[in-house]
Amino acid sequence: MTEPHDVAADHLREAVTGIWCAVLGADHAGPEDDFFAEGGDSALAVEAALSLRAVTGTDLEIDILYQYPRFGRLLSVLTDPRPEREERPLTPAEELLWFVERLRPGTPVYHIAALYRFPGRIDIPRLRTALDTLVAGHPALRRGFEAPGRAVTAARATVSCRWLDGRGLPPETLRELIDEHARLPFDLARPPLLRAVAVERGDDGDLLLLTVHHLVCDGGSLAILEDALSELYTDGGAGPAPATAAIPEGARAVNEESRAYWRRALAGCPRTIALPHDLPRPAALDNTGDVHRLVCPEDLVADMARFAARERVSPFMTWIVAYVAGLVAQTGERDVVIGIAASSRTAEQRGEIGMFVDPVPLRLTIPDGTTARDLARQVRSTTAAALAHRGVPFPAIVDDLGPGGDPTRAPLVQAGLSYLDVAGSALRFDGQRAVRDLLPTGTAKYELLWAVTRQADRTIAELEYLSGLFTAEHAAKLHAAMLAAAGAAFANPDAPLRLPERPIHAGRRPLPELIRLRAGQRPDAPAIRDHGVELTYAQLDERAVAIATGLRAAGLRRGDVVAVPMARGADAICSYLGIFYAGCAYLPVDQGQPAQRLRAALDGVADAALVTAASPPMPAGLRVLRLDRLLDDPGRVADPGVPVRVTGDDAAYLMSTSGTTGRPKTVVVPHRAISRLVPDAAGLEYRRDDRVAHLCNPAFDAAILEIWGALGAGAVLAIGNREDVSSPARLRAFLDEHRISVLGLPTALLNTVIDFAPDALGDLRLLIFGGEKADEQRLARLLAHRPPASVVNVYGPTENTTVSTLQQVTAAGLDPGPLPIGRPVSGSTAYALGPDGEPVPPGAEGELYVGGDGLARGYHGNPALTAASFVPNPFGPGRLYRTGDRVRMLLDGTFFFRGRTDDQVKVRGFRVELGEIEHTLRSLPGVDDAVVAARAAADSAELLAWVTGTRDAAGLTEDLRTRLPAYMIPAVAVADRLPLNANGKVDRAALLASLDAPGTAAEAPPEDPADDAVTEAVAALWRESLGLARARPDDSFVALGGHSIKALRLLARLDEELGVTVDLADFLADPTMRALVAAVHHLQPTTERKQP
Amino acid sequence: MSEDEYDVVVNDEEQYSIWAAGRAVPAGWQTVGVRGSREKCLEHIETVWTDMRPRSLRLAMGEH
């Protein structure tokens, strides 16, 4: 083979010869001449290197003469006719890694560090030559990466190969040195991204550490590298002919059909996986990580081999089954997305070193009863389809899903799996076979990565995890448990996959303990902002200690119940925490309810009440303690028993809900049920740097999320008052003022905000809504226009602690059909069962039963009702709560709400038993019978009552107001008789139908003609918001069925149409149309009247 | 037909419930020997289930 003649190369040869001779004072240079033998020393070597840099115009290594002391080799290296550099854009896979490197430069997260233990010695000069020859033959090993994202392959590169004397070094010191070398950052712009350290250890046998960057190598390439290096070292050969150019692997055309496949395959998939970590998720995670390593048991490997043969799946697919079985057993997740590293190596690339793996997301669904065999079939088809559509870069797949997910976690894939078979390859120097270990880099690429390596004699499973989430002990337990679950799956491939025995929540502390911890961690961080009052965590803790001390001094003990009749505010929060610290449970009391119902809620339930001056009067006989006295007690003696230690089984709070018998039902909720939800249930994670809005009435369980989500995370709880939610504009001002990042809203209120101030929500990190059926069209509008980073629809009864299921809402996942209520929240289970108690087939309607750690203890003082509602769980340990909700479950485990099995309704997010209202009506004097029905209205359900007897409607309504909260007051009509259906029961449907019949409305006085444009405009909006045909000046908005949310809509529409902001509180003080018109005139003196 | 017959059952936490007679009782639960209508079973539970705290909590609180 003749070298092409090149004039420039001749000049370069002359120049190099000239430098050699000048530096050494020689008159001639022969190919075998050695720089140091000819009189060169370290100073001369540097001088020569600098001169060579000048003539070659390249950034040569300053120790180039040490690398190539012989003139002939030096000359050939320097005058290599290959082009200096070849550039190309990054491949999608390189781009991902490059992005991480740019984000966190200098971390070894993508280092592949292989430590080889040889029985004997390594010959360092031979190793150096072999490494350089290797690099010459593999373009990837001469490749560097430059901003803003170019891969540059240099014509030549030399491998840094250090020698270390490890003789006599203590093993720990040696290990530290090796780790340090393995983790030393590469300068990505300067190839090779491969380096070596040889450690001489005398009789112990030498070590070789090869560190290579994942940008130019992968697991498969490492095996190729080992084989090639073995051959070069042992035979000393020239190695393969140098490949001249990198095979252009970049810039594949993205196939639209493939893109569509991914959109379809991942539609509505969960964006995050609820991994069972034991540390609370910090606000910001770095990639510090560790590895837990296990040798897979022989019988598992044998079972898997048999299984793979029988099911005709590859070993890799079998490990996917194992991983998913392990994850399901630990998380209870039924719809998981994992990342696999799929090889993109083409036939021509066989034997080439490089980065030939793409991360590919795999979505697998695990309905009840799925067996290993079922899963294997799914894995086979899903993997095949995924690989067939592999060309789409991962970021494009994520983009196509639309906004959503958790911006603080890796998009879509947080759990990865890699599998590598290296049984056939090894590093062998002169027949000495080295034992290889891959060293942990002290980092983790995913939250959890399972790296399985099949070696010649064993299979190694390494669980790489983020240290910010998992402790080493927990990771070890988790790894063993996952492997055991996989073992069980393959030992009995026709048995349903194992589910969590008890949903894992290791390390979940009861709230009082967690908040104590927060106060210790960041005592001066703000905990509560309540209209000018700011409490730090230390102050909150201090007040709670004072309250607990006072409660205990008053004789209250662990397990006692303390009522808190206080409105939303700092006092209430301090009281709740103080009650926790005393080992007691709190009972928040809705101040808006009539005295009689309040008494019923407390009677026999509360052991004491903790009150402020603003609290309503407490029933006689109840022990009453004043909050201010507990806080400012000069005689207080420190109580070493405070805070009282509680377990997850201790009651945390009690909450009254509507009951059919006329008495409220009081749900008792243990600490475990809250801890499974806050602060870090998947999809509802609260972060330390969040500002969480507290707008919910504390007597309703949505407040649990707000209060304890914020405080459990160490975040700021910003408390809003009534005015802050009195109009969308006010709400926007509140959100802006407090820079709120997490907001929960009842669905009906969210609808109003979307209609009138959709931009108010754009800065939220997390928007949570629920309580009633969602309005898909409004959500689509919200998502189309600067949506919050994450939008979540939650569903759940108080008996399963606020959230049973949740659904991430994304534009991409928003189908034209109804919005699902989603899948069970972490730590919870849900089943759609038929009347026989057996699961109904996917798609069919059944009653929703929920279980898991969120379950309440039961109903206070009501064993029979508890026993009837909380039933044995035939699918796992513990009980299931019968929700009374009718649902449909899809194959992927997503639930849709279909209605109720009974007469419970939701009115503006409040849960109402029609039976309670009927019971109350029948108990009124002069009432013979009563029936209450709910009718769907524009925003929510509307309650209507028909009563027979001697009373008139106005009087009945008055009486009801003293017995029921405002949201439970129906519009009352007096009837002659109540129609019965064929079963002899009152026919609600017939009554509802009669409303729409003509002639039911009494003869109404004619509407007053509007006397001006404002009155006309107000009247039009009034009619619109109430859905009525007429509007008269003395009509009361409230009496006509207008409630606060309808009022909000009306006032928002007024703002929109007339540009005036009427205060909700002012309006409700006199909710007549006349007053409203006056208010508008007052606020807007320059109305159209000026220009008649 | 025993469709409307129930058994009173109790679990390891000494929580009571009812279970359709004839259906296999889920693991962790035992019948207590009371069978009858739903109302009869619930009445029985109303009289025997006097401390509704789960057993592990009672033990954690140093009681039995």
Give a verbal description of the structure.
- Chain A: InterPro entries: AA_adenyl_dom (IPR010071), ACP-like_sf (IPR036736), AMP-bd_C_sf (IPR045851), AMP-dep_synth/lig_dom (IPR000873), CAT-like_dom_sf (IPR023213), Condensation_dom (IPR001242), PKS_PP-bd (IPR020806), PP-bd_ACP (IPR009081).
- Chain A: Its cofactor is pantetheine 4'-phosphate.
- Chain A: Residues 7-82, 1009-1084 form the Carrier domain.
- The complex is a heterodimer of chains A (1092) and B (64).
- Chain A has 1092 residues and is α/β, with parallel strands linked by helices.
- Among the domains of chain A are: 7-78, Non-ribosomal Peptide Synthetase Peptidyl Carrier Protein, Chain A; 85-235, Chloramphenicol Acetyltransferase, CATH 3.30.559.10; 290-491, Chloramphenicol Acetyltransferase, CATH 3.30.559.30; 509-676, Rossmann fold (3-Layer(aba) Sandwich), CATH 3.40.50; 904-996, ANL, C-terminal domain (GMP Synthetase, Chain A, domain 3); 1013-1090, Orthogonal Bundle (Non-ribosomal Peptide Synthetase Peptidyl Carrier Protein, Chain A).
- Chain A has 32 helices and 42 strands.
- Chain A has a six-stranded mixed sheet with strand order 8-16-15-11-9-10, with helices on one face. A five-stranded mixed sheet of chain A has the order 5-6-7-2-14, with helices on both faces. Chain A has a five-stranded mixed sheet with strand order 27-28-29-30-31.
- In chain A, strand 40 and strand 41 (941-949) form a beta hairpin.
- In chain A, helix 6 packs across helix 8 (219-235), helix 11 (315-331) crosses helix 14 (472-491) and helix 29 packs across helix 32.
- Chain A is elongated.
- Residues 242-252, 502-507, 997-1008 and 1087-1092 of chain A have low confidence and may be disordered.
- Chain B has a single domain (6-60), classed as Structural Genomics, Unknown Function 30-nov-00 1gh9 Mol_id (Rubredoxin-like, Alpha-Beta Complex).
- Chain B is of the alpha+beta class and 64 residues long.
- In chain B, strands 2-1-3 form a three-stranded antiparallel sheet, covered by helices on one side.
- At the A-B interface, helix 25 and strand 35 of A face strand 1, strand 2, helix 1 and helix 2 of B.
